[in-house]
Amino acid sequence: KNEVEQSPQNLTAQEGEFITINCSYSVGISALHWLQQHPGGGIVSLFMLSSGKKKHGRLIATINIQEKHSSLHITASHPRDSAVYICAVAVTSGSRLTFGEGTQLTVNP
Amino acid sequence: EAGVAQSPRYKIIEKRQSVAFWCNPISGHATLYWYQQILGQGPKLLIQFQNNGVVDDSQLPKDRFSAERLKGVDSTLKIQPAKLEDSAVYLCASSPLPRGGEQYFGPGTRLTVT
Predict the structure, then answer these.
(1) Backbone angles phi, psi at B84, to 5 degrees
(2) Closest residue to A30, CB basis, from B42, B100, B106
């Protein structure tokens, strides 16, 4: 079992829909990261959070430390949101990031 | 602020050949990471540097992979000799903090080994 599990693996939505991507982890963490990866490989950091909720534009990230679970929400989705979204955790005992396998999001016009 | 720079962006080599990748982190970032991302998987840490010292290289296949960061700034990752299973995107990231901080990723180098 992977230390970081994401669901769903693939997600297809229509433009305008509300999207949720989930991340569960099994280790103690100091922080959780949500990353976005477009075709071509480059990764952009969306959020780093250790508690509560963060919002940036149409993106919202939440984390529940007790339940070891985080969600990434996209409101009013747009085709340009199509990308792979990756959850990664920084384990408490060190600085290494452990990554989930990513969620491929496709938003159709 | 300039981001993390990597070169080359793409490389195709035959198995048993050697290859080197270069990374220039964001100015002032003491921590530098090399990741390997095989298609369909999340990135896997190969090596972490703090300035010019190695913090974590437990997942680096040391029989064929090597990395250095001699002056604590830019870094090179080498594969010698390459195998088919080394085909992947190699990502470099840097962070201003030694642990747990936000990481800034470069565009990656896509390696194809034939």
Answers:
(1) -55, -40
(2) B100
